[in-house]
Amino acid sequence: MVSLARPADHLSGGPCPWPYPRPAIEKGTAKGVSSLRIVSVHRELVAEPTVHWHVSAIGIGAHPDRIDRWLTLPDALDAIDGGDHFYTIGDTSKMLARVRRSVCPLCLHHVIGSTSENVPDNNLHNLPSK
Ligand SMILES: [Zn+2]
User: Fold this and answer.
1) For residue 57, how far is its CA from the centre of ligand 1 (angstroms)?
2) How many angstroms is it from 72 CA to the middle of ligand 1?
């Protein structure tokens, strides 16, 4: 007789534990996952290896002229790791750009950047600082 792969107590009583935690393929439905628009950024200068800018904090808001809250770069990276989606929308182009974790090509630190460079006005680095 072949024994069941699952213990019998999973088959009776209580919620079935299957499937195990799902991969992050389901968008926007999982608890705690949100889609957040970045409307402003803070930048800071990094001195090494050459002087360049990092986005050090992002302002989240449903409307470009109102920031609901600020996230520091580490908080934003944690949120991305937790499944939250960040994006920008160009003021003029109305084009959406996804914002993702990336590695700074200059200093190799983990940073965030927008994925679309096709239009300049939704580039994360071009957002206004408020
Ligand atoms: Zn850097």
Assistant:
1) 14
2) 16
More confidently predicted of 123 and 108: 108
Model pLDDT, residue 119:
82
Give the Cα separation of 64 and 68 in Å (integer): 10
Q: What separation in Å is there between the alpha carbon of 19 and the centre of ligand 1?
A: 40
CA 77 – CA 120 distance, rounded (Å): 23
**How far, in Å, from the CA of 53 to the mean position of ligand 1?**
7
pLDDT (tens digit per residue) in 58-81: 999 988 889 999 999 999 999 999
Looking at the predicted structure, is the pLDDT value of residue 16 above 80? no
38 vs 33, 65, 92, 93, 121, CA distance in Å? 16, 11, 15, 16, 13
CA of 26 from ligand 1 middle (Å) equals 32
Give the contacts of 104 (CB within 8 A, at least 6 positions apart). Answer: 46, 52, 54, 110, 111
The mean pLDDT value for 94-122 works out to 89
